[in-house]
Amino acid sequence: MTLQTSTSFIPEKYRILSGSALKVLAMAIMLIDHTASFLLRYYPPVTRAWFQIGSTSYSLYRVMRDVGRAAFPIFCFLLVEGFLHTHDRFKYGRNLLIFACISEIPWNFAQNGTLLFADKQNVFFTLFLGYLAFCLIDRFKENPTMQLVSMLALLAVSYFLKADYGYKGYVFLLIMFWLHQYKPAQALIGSCWLIYEWKACFAFISLNMYNGRRGFIRGKWAKYFFYAFYPVHIAILTIIRKKWFGI
Prior knowledge:
Helices cover 66% and strands 2% of the residues. β1 and β2 (56-58) form a beta hairpin. The chain has one domain (12-245). The chain has helices at 19-38, 44-47, 60-68, 71-85, 89-112, 123-139, 144-161, 166-178, 183-193, 203-207, 220-245, and strands at 51-53, 56-58. α6 (123-139) crosses α8 (166-178). By secondary structure, it is an all-alpha fold.
């Protein structure tokens, strides 16, 4: 089943990635990033510089973190697709909020080793705020003033909540939503917004290879595995770190 027919800057014959393939790619990239961030940063051989370009020293740790920047744009893209094609928007949003709350437990342990709130909350909260914005934009599609008020109100929430990627991540979600039918513009404007994390811009290559098909991830269990991967892999990495490094 084809889900969308939006433009792309990549020729159609090279659009070989389904939604399921993008999900697996995003999870793999996130795992690389978090393995470096939550675990390998405490292992000196991994953080030792291999080479230097300008004033930046590159180690295995640095390369893994840079690769990991591409995960967030892919997850944002998938969230927009999920919103546009879900049969139950309330249930979709509820699942995001539930897993945001569940993820706080391993997230806080990974950040500060306790159940107490860390300095920032996990990325599910950023995705949830973006999803709420999508819902309100659609709800007030005949009332631009209320759309603007809704977006600004949630922008304020994202700023004070300090979830992962913060208000910048929330604005990026809006860019992805408003331009979901215009892939080249989405890539250009999205990349300009992400200039502070320019490595993330490479994600737009894979996003423009999307063929609009759902792919092989189907059924309730597969869907919830995709949700659960985030808190579960953080918990596993934190447990390994505690065992290996006592941190």
